[in-house]
TrEMBL record:
It comes from the Bacteria. Keywords: Membrane, Transmembrane, Transmembrane helix. The lineage of its organism: Bacteria, Bacillati, Actinomycetota, Actinomycetes, Geodermatophilales. NCBIfam families: GGDEF. InterPro entries: Biofilm_reg_signaling, EAL_dom, EAL_sf, GGDEF_dom, Nucleotide_cyclase, Rev_trsase/Diguanyl_cyclase. This is Diguanylate cyclase (GGDEF) domain-containing protein. The chain crosses the membrane at residues 21-43, 49-72, 84-103, 115-136, 148-172, 178-202, 209-229, 235-253, 274-294. Residues 362-493 form the GGDEF domain. SUPFAM superfamilies: EAL domain-like, Nucleotide cyclase.
Length: 760
């Protein structure tokens, strides 16, 4: 709901300025329209001096004012400024023409054309066409060559139409001025057909401005055609009913200027040349038409030619639509809907070019980037925020790429960069820049969010000659980067390996779990109130037969992705409780903390398993603490809460691990059945050097106490930190200053030495 409101608010914000500046335009338009209607009314009411003066004055005020209105629109609304200036020039030019016409001839009979004012009249058309063209350009990012051709065809077709209806109709009347008069409807038709074509390209959502322009131009076509006809037959009367047509056409233009600007629409791609044939048809038809009418030839040729022109017109309209549909579908197929970035499909297309370049001796780097803990942002802040973040990531990253580099979204929160002619150093430097740019906070839904990312890098042709393989390798390296919590890792066959290597590693880990290659190291937790070590955290290690002692970052991720987290945790719990029992039997009552993973907490059978293990080892539930990271609590909330509650009911303690690295609020966490809060070591280790970290430690501690939670600080690496924590009232401290995690017997010796000479 929050996001919905924010979106609406944002929309309002962006709309407001245009609306406000349009207000002046709209008020002026209303005034001008009223002036024009009043002048019409005055004209209709009678011929006496005052009314006639009112009618004429109102008309001039209206047409001169309209030019001003269009200038006002251009000045007050920055969008489409050139469009409205061109329209203002067009209408202004028309006004000058009208003035010239009125000055040349005050009488009711039409004058013999051309006169100088015709130059100003006819200038209206190219200026209006230029304005329409700019308006179309502002709506479409690119016009295809076929659209140009379409424009030519439609122009020719329109000319044929005009000649059929206008030129042919009165050429034989031998009026010397008729040809020039006939130019106007032709030019109007050109404008109208251009607008029709533009509407076909823009499609639905063209906006009211286009429709007003269509109405205005259509009125021009009709009025000018009738005018030409009347002039040819000597029936035109100045100030007659026909003149209203021009006035209303201009009112429509004024209305168009009152409409809010619209954003650009999708990008059409270079399109078909399917219009050559209909174009030639149209030209042929036109030649026939002209010949048929000029020589007063047979009506059959004229009729056929006319039909051909109609067909060409229909074809043109259809092609406009087709080009657009084709362009849209091609564009959509290659871009990601959410971010507008190229998608997987386009990536694979680009890979073919990269392969060719590598075959020719070039190099290429593939960088796969995955945002860290994106799921958490989605889960805790909502998909709206998650989506907004993804949309902002693209432009940020793009700012650090060269023009030829490809940036695409592979899906989810995974992005890829394909950079030609880039070596390992270049790729590593780029990855660092990308990580750094994401670390700068994003403003989303009224809060500042920064994200960390992990990048995997593969370099061709060193790692592979095929971009697609490079992508897989970069992906594997990316997982290594994530596990190692580093920004970027370059692929290494030995360490990250191919699928074969991974399968082998999973088989080895499975064996390690069942054959007892997993061992525990224990790190003491010191209670600051009593000065005693009351508990330990059990941390898993893999005693690998060939590779030696491995730390969790080398295999936890693998266990998680291979579905081995259940067996692993069971194994660790079993060993930790067995150890706890052994210590108890020798008179040491320690609580043991065991880390559990997301997959454990979605397993509804987990609480029973824990209870079973406690019973088997004869360990009271209160001697066990399960450490759960925030991310895990956010992932599948409902189920996690059910499992946690069941665990808590057995009496087991629940600790929130790595607190502060996620995005959840403490208030939410406190509503869960938890007993302990473990502030992440990044804050603790920095608290004596950074005021910010120090104040985070202080405020979290106060909040934890207010919520009745035990406050644990992990990562205390020196005496000063332990002292500072003690002074603040911290309950429990853990860190290298006391001891690194140790095998059980070493820990026992450490504990013995400690009780002999207590230090803190
Ligand atoms: P964690 O739960 O935050 O464990 C604490 C880690 O911080 C341990 O690394 C420990 O050696 C290290 N540490 C302790 N004191 C200090 C200090 O003063 N300074 C610094 N820089 N580090 C300190 P370790 O053992 O490599 O474990 C890493 C992570 O692996 C653990 O983070 C935990 O998330 C995971 N993990 C370890 N054992 C298990 C396990 O049995 N099951 C599961 N699911 N995860 C485990
Ligand atoms: Ca832990
Ligand atoms: Ca931790």
């Amino acid at each position: 709901m929050v996001q919905v409101i924010t979106h609406a608010a944002r929309r309002r914000r962006t709309r407001q300025p245009a609306d406000r500046s349009l207000r002046a335009v709209r008020v002026s338009a209303a005034v001008l329209a009223s002036v024009y209607l009043l002048s019409l009314a005055a004209h209709g009411l009678g011929d006496d001096g005052v009314l006639a003066a009112l009618a004429v004055g109102g008309k001039w005020l209206f047409i001169v004012g309209l030019t001003g209105l269009l200038v006002l629109r251009a000045v007050t609304v920055p969008e489409d400024r050139a469009v409205w200036l061109l329209f203002a020039a067009a209408v202004g030019s028309y006004t000058v023409g009208s003035l010239g016409y009125a000055l040349t001839n005050g009488g009711p009979a039409p004058i013999i054309r051309p006169i100088w004012a015709d130059l100003a009249f006819i200038a209206f058309h190219p200026l209006a066409a230029a304005a329409l063209f700019r308006l179309l350009r502002s709506r479409m990012r690119r016009l295809t060559s076929s659209m140009w051709l379409d424009a030519v065809v439609t122009g020719l077709t329109a000319a044929a139409f005009a000649s059929a209806f206008a030129i042919g109709a009165y050429l034989h009347t031998a009026l010397r001025n008729a040809l020039l008069v006939a130019v106007y409807p032709i030019a109007d038709l050109l404008l109208l057909v251009f607008i029709a074509g533009a509407l076909a390209v823009i499609g639905r959502g063209a906006g009211a401005a286009w429709w007003w322009l269509t109405a205005g131009t259509a009125l021009f076509v009709v009025t000018d055609t009738v005018y030409a006809y009347q002039v040819a037959h000597g029936t035109y009367v100045i100030g007659g009913l026909l003149d209203v047509g021009w006035g209303l056409a201009f009112v429509c233009y004024g209305m168009a200027a009152c409409q809010a600007p619209r954003p650009r629409t999708s990008v059409p791609l270079p399109g078909v040349r399917a219009l050559v044939v209909p174009g030639l048809c149209a030209i042929g038809a036109l030649v026939l038409l002209l010949r048929g009418y000029l020589e007063d030839g047979d009506p059959l040729a004229g009729g056929l030619a006319f039909t051909a022109v109609v067909a060409a017109l229909a074809r043109t309209a259809l092609t406009f639509r087709e080009v657009r549909a084709l362009a849209d579908s091609q564009h959509q197929a290659r871009t990601d809907e959410l971010t507008g970035l190229p998608n997987r499909r386009q990536v694979f297309e680009t890979f073919r070019a990269a392969d060719a370049r590598m075959a020719a001796g070039g190099t290429a780097a593939v960088l796969v980037m995955d945002l860290d803990r994106f799921k958490e942002i989605n889960d805790s802040l909502g998909h709206g925020v998650g989506d907004a973040l993804l949309r902002e990531v693209g432009p940020r990253l793009a700012g650090h790429l060269r023009s030829g580099d490809l940036l695409a979204r592979l899906g989810g929160d995974e992005f890829v960069v394909l950079a030609a002619d880039m070596d390992e150093d270049g790729a590593l430097a780029l990855a660092e820049r990308l990580c750094a740019t994401l670390a700068r906070s994003f403003r989303l839904a009224g809060m500042a969010l920064s994200v960390e990312a992990s990048v995997g890098i593969a370099i061709g042709p060193r790692h592979s000659r095929h971009a697609e393989e490079l992508l897989q390798m970069a992906d594997l390296a990316m997982y290594a980067a994530k596990a190692g919590r580093s920004c970027a890792v370059v692929y290494d066959e030995e360490r990250h390996g191919s699928g074969r290597y991974r399968l082998e590693a999973v088989a080895q880990l499975r064996r390690a779990i069942t054959e007892g290659e997993l061992v525990l190291h224990h790190q003491p937790k010191l209670s600051l109130q009593t000065g005693r070590v009351d508990g330990v955290e059990a941390l898993v290690r893999w005693q690998h037969p060939e590779r030696g002692l491995l730390f969790p970052d080398a295999f936890i991720e693998l266990a998680e992705s291979a579905g081995l987290m259940g067996p692993l945790t069971r194994r660790v719990l079993d060993a930790a409780l067995a150890q706890r029992r052994a210590w108890a039997d020798r008179g040491r009552e320690l609580t043991v903390a065991v880390n559990v993973s997301p997959s454990n907490l979605v397993d509804e059978g987990f609480p029973d398993e824990v209870a079973g293990l406690l019973a088997r080892h004869g360990v009271p539930a209160t001697a066990l603490v399960l450490e759960v990271t925030e991310s895990l609590l956010m992932a599948d909330r409902e189920r996690a809460v059910r499992v946690l509650s069941a665990l808590r009911e057995t009496g087991v303690g629940i600790s929130i691990d790595d607190y502060g690295t996620g995005y959840s609020s403490l208030a939410y966490l406190a509503s869960l059945p938890v007993t302990e809060l473990k502030l992440d070591r990044t804050f603790v280790s920095a608290m004596n050097d950074s005021d910010r970290s120090a104040s985070i430690v202080t405020s979290t501690l106060q909040l934890a106490h207010a919520l009745g939670l035990v406050f644990v600080a992990e990562g205390a690496e020196d005496r000063a930190t332990v002292d500072a924590l003690a002074a603040l009232g911290c309950d429990v401290v853990q860190g290298y200053h006391l001891s690194r995690p140790l095998p059980a017997e070493q820990l026992e010796r450490w504990l013995q030495a400690r009780t002999a000479t207590p230090v803190a």
